[in-house]
Design goal:
alpha/beta; binds zinc ion; 21 strands; 34% helix; 12-stranded mixed sheet; 440 residues; GMP Synthetase, Chain A, domain 3
Length: 440
């Protein structure tokens, strides 16, 4: 379902205006006005919120009880304001993913599925108007200078969504690339497209940097945008040195558009889109976890939603002059890549998001997982499952899912170990769900 261009343009202009003029008390008043309106709407139309926020004064919205992904998914049917049932939405989303149909809708709403950073699957529902608002806003925040001719954008992601197809029009020529297609094919297509902006997970951008160094990739984008995985400083430095262009970031999840890099390269919280409250982590030495209130979404209201991400906030203001807070680092997402052998005997990289889905889509009963690869073609899978669930059934489902995924990507079967229970993680250590500990 294509959004009409008018709301996109309207939100593009409004987002520009807010970025320039909303600051200080004005920004706080804006957040409060939007939050109160969203909360009132949620209370009126979503039975979950009516009960959850009963007895709380709207004016104290910054102190209201929090929710998280488990709460949202457990109460999905009454959490959204349209009465969309979880089973129906999940069925549509899973079917779409299997059939690689990227425009699934329920009651005219786009439905999407994400495994999310916390490892639990989240379902999202957005209306065409919300999509238009998102598209207009993200264009306003990522296109820092109006181009003389349309920018060509190459966007690598695992599964497309019609959410992304909305971005375009006169500003952009948008081309979607499947993250799992062989690198040589992507390189050939990029050489043909010659994108101005290259968007993808940093692990994929790293492969393209290698291809550039080897002289295979001839496309010379003027900017890279990292999405979907942690962009570690050494990756960023390497990408910038190989491509000789800035690497920016979009920090977005099921729960909303959280942060986008400005022209100066700082990852600014989108304070006019989400009210992000930073809760200090015990013993985290300045690290915080975000509690997010989306100031716009009415279909699936996100009110005081606790994310599992670990962030470090910047203490110095940005050189660009924007007062929107800056995220110094997103620490909490895994970014290792595992390798399996193709039938032709080559090493094939599997990106963390693929690995995560490969495990989590096998069973709804998996509550937590860790993957360790010590050598190519081997994988040790550690699972925590819902209480009173027969582990053998889940282990079998996971083995089947891994086998099917490897088969789907023309790889030889892997040697798998599936174990119940998680590995001990030393306190304070960075949590990495996917780890490649040996040589590729
Ligand atoms: Zn800035």
């Amino acid at each position: 379902m294509a959004a009409s261009p008018l709301p996109v343009i309207r939100h593009f202009l409004l987002a520009h205006w807010r970025w320039r003029f909303l600051r200080g008390e004005r920004l706080e008043r804006f957040q409060t006005r939007r939050a109160e309106s969203i909360i009132a709407h949620a209370r009126h139309h979503a039975p979950f919120y009516r009960a959850h926020l009963a007895g709380h004064d709207l004016r104290d919205w910054r102190q209201m009880p929090t929710i998280d992904k488990q709460t949202m998914m457990a109460h999905f049917d009454t959490f959204n304001t349209q009465g969309v049932r979880r089973a129906e939405a999940m069925g549509v989303a899973l079917r779409a993913e299997q059939q690689r149909d990227f425009a699934p809708t329920v009651k005219g709403l786009t439905v999407g599925l994400s495994s999310g950073t916390s490892g639990h699957r989240g379902l999202f529902l957005v209306s065409p108007l919300e999509q238009a608002a998102w598209a207009g806003t993200i264009l306003a925040r990522t296109i820092h200078h109006l181009p003389r001719k349309p920018l060509r954008v190459a966007f690598f992601l695992r599964s497309n969504s019609n959410l992304y197809e909305q971005v375009g029009g006169r500003l952009l020529h948008f081309r979607y690339f499947d993250l799992m297609q062989p690198l040589a094919d992507s390189v050939a297509a990029l050489n043909h497209l010659r994108p101005d902006i290259l968007v993808g997970p940093p692990s994929l951008l790293g492969f393209l940097a290698e291809a550039l160094r080897r002289g295979e990739l001839q496309a010379r984008p003027s900017r890279l945008i990292s999405v979907a995985e942690v962009l570690e400083p050494q990756d960023k430095a390497r990408l910038e040195s190989v491509f000789e262009v800035p690497v920016h970031q979009i920090y977005q999840c099921t729960e909303g558009l959280l942060a986008v890099s400005c022209a100066a390269g700082s990852l600014h919280i989108q304070e006019d889109i989400v009210a992000l409250q930073a809760e200090p982590l015990p013993g985290g030495e300045g690290r915080v976890t975000p509690i997010v209130t989306d100031l716009w979404r009415q279909i699936q209201p996100i009110i005081r939603y606790r994310l599992n991400d670990v962030l470090q906030l910047e203490t110095e203001p940005c050189a660009c002059g924007s007062p929107y807070r800056v995220i110094h680092a997103i620490e909490g997402r895994c970014d290792d890549i595992c390798y399996f052998e193709t039938r032709a005997g080559e090493a094939r990289p599997f990106f963390p998001d693929t690995l995560r889905r490969m495990v989590l889509l096998a069973s709804q009963e998996i509550s937590e997982y860790q993957l360790v690869q010590e050598r190519q073609g081997h994988l040790c899978i550690h699972l925590e499952v819902a209480p009173h669930t027969p582990f053998d059934d889940i282990a079998r489902a996971v083995q089947q899912s891994v086998a099917a995924t490897l088969e789907g990507y023309d790889c030889r079967p892997a040697t798998l170990i599936v174990e119940q229970g998680l590995l001990h993680v030393p306190s304070g250590a960075k949590r990495r769900r996917v780890q490649r500990v040996g040589p590729g």
